[in-house]
C-alpha cells in the first residue's frame, strides 16, 4: 500500500505535468463517486497576471487522477483517518508551481456546481 505522502506527490506531479505554459498555480476540484468508479474533475490555473483560466486535463490525466484519489480515500479509510465518519467525497488540490508546494482540502459534501 502506498503511503499518503507518496500519493500526494503523484497527484502534485500529475498536475505539474499538465499545467499550461505560464501557470504559476494549478487548482483542481474533484468529486469521487461513492463507488470510486468515476470522478468529476475541474482544472483551473492562475497565470503570471493573476488571471484564473480553465483548462482540460485530458483523458489520461483524468483517468490517472481517479486512480490516485481512490487510493488516497482508501488510505484514509484503511488507516482510520475518518474517525468513524464517512470518508471525504471530494477535494480541492492547489499546486504552487513556483514553490513546488501542494495543498489538499478535503470536502465531505458535493461542492462542484453542475
Automatic annotation (TrEMBL):
Domain of life: Bacteria
Name of the protein: Uncharacterized protein
Amino acid at each position: 500500500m502506498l503511503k499518503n505522502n507518496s500519493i500526494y506527490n503523484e497527484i502534485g506531479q500529475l498536475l505539474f505535468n499538465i499545467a499550461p505554459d505560464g501557470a504559476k498555480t494549478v487548482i483542481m476540484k474533484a468529486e469521487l463517486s461513492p463507488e470510486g468508479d468515476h470522478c468529476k474533475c475541474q482544472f483551473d490555473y492562475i497565470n503570471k497576471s493573476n488571471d484564473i483560466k480553465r483548462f482540460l486535463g485530458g483523458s489520461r490525466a483524468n483517468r490517472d487522477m481517479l486512480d490516485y484519489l481512490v487510493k488516497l480515500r482508501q488510505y484514509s479509510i484503511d488507516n482510520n483517518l475518518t474517525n468513524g465518519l464517512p470518508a471525504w467525497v471530494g477535494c480541492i488540490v492547489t499546486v504552487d508551481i513556483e514553490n513546488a508546494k501542494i495543498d489538499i482540502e478535503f470536502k465531505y459534501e458535493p461542492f462542484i456546481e453542475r
